[in-house]
Amino acid sequence: MLRRAATALVSICALLVGVSASGAAQPPPGVNVEGFAFPDNRVDAPVTGLLQAHDHLWSYKGFGEGPFCGKTFDQEGVAAALADCDTHPLALTAWFEALMEGDEPAPPRGWPTFDDWPGHEWPTHSQSYYKGVERLWRSGVRVFVDHMVSNRALCEVYPLRQSTCDEMASVRAQVAESRAFEAFLDVEYGEGQGWYRIVGSPAEAREVIAQGKMAVVLGVEISEPFGCSMLNSAPQCTEEAIDQGLAELYDLGVRSMFLCHKFDNALCGVRFDEGLTGVAVNAGNALTTGEFWNAETCQGSYQDNTALGFDGLTEAPHCNRRGLTGLGVHTIYAMMERGMIVELDHMSVKAADHALSILEAESYAGVISSHNWMDAALSPRLLQLGGLVTGISRESNQFLDYWRAARAAAPDPDTFAFGYGLDANGLNSGLPRAGQGAEINYPFRSFDGNALIDRQIWGERTWDFNEDGLVHEGLVPDWLEALRLDAGSDGPQFVADMSRGAEAYLRMWEASTER
Fold first, then answer.
1. Which one, 156, 199, 207, 468, has the greatest CB density within 10 A?
2. Cis omega before residue 112 (within 30°)?
């Protein structure tokens, strides 16, 4: 008893002062970047810099504040932000790890050794400690789209949640956390001087970038925006609720939004998940809507993912019968009135086709496919409209294929721009692993040559992309260097297209607000 009490006391003290189990005091995690990429941006000139188009820094405030372990930041420091979670070794509570690994998870170890997490095997453990985000800012990211994310069904099946499963309440909590982080950095850098700056307009973004900071656009990716669920095909919201909800989101600073995500809702049908994941998500669809996905054999040139578990009579390729609803049409027009950016990913092709037709009729450029959840056959229409296509972070060959396909679909290759969507903290198990890219030599230069990037050191762990792969936000610059090398003779073109990403996003946004 006394021994256990003493061990607990030592652990508490270590948490407070940042001391490892060996007793050695640990320095705070480093950034390990000398210099600053793309230092010469001005308000009156096109921005040079990278675009991160899809990420989730605040997932631990979603899903009922239960499944995710670790935080992007904590006022008490890294030992509190990246502390291990007592509940996660239990198979009942670490349900996602148990599902992925097939066995009861062992206790994962984070700060200060990081023996286990962040890691590919622990998708519910934080991948975005802020020193990693700072590293990618110093290495060249100038526009960062930060999505609030949650899912009522996943929340309700988690036994140790600490807050409501209402998705809109979760969005409010995550936006509040993003504002708290912005203020947290201002304590270090001075009032209004922190590098993470939430912006509400493209003009504000250009001002922030000209000051050398990162312009952050808030987005929303939830399954039931405004409470717009569907039960037995009956919508559970109204146009009035949508208008009130959009007004609230806009006031919160949100400028980009998905209409549906994973499950059919009152706004649109979804693009199916494939394989066994699709079976599980389809079960969730039935849990939340009272109905399984309703598939048909695709008749046109567009198609959704082929899903398992249908009646066996529906031949592939599969398309969701559900498209854009009347409430979904209302939402798109209401978003256009506010100059908001419509996210087409996760819509069924029937819904995405309809949405694009509306946007085309209105010559509205504020539309994006940020992480490869749209049929690529729709890309030429989206790009012709002035929208953007960016790729989800994957191994080199796959990501470079995304880039080349989008470039081939662009109306003008000379002005084509690209970006990436990391999708960290979004239960994304497909991040590149060690050996899935060229071996890089440390230190290496940023795309513009102005920053020298070395291995990042956190506590007792030195991160090396060649050995670790892309396991957290801070390894994005390393992954991008591997992509440049793997692009071979196309490397200079890849660098040029990626370096135009931030400017392309701002021009798309400007076109949607200045009509």
1. 199
2. yes
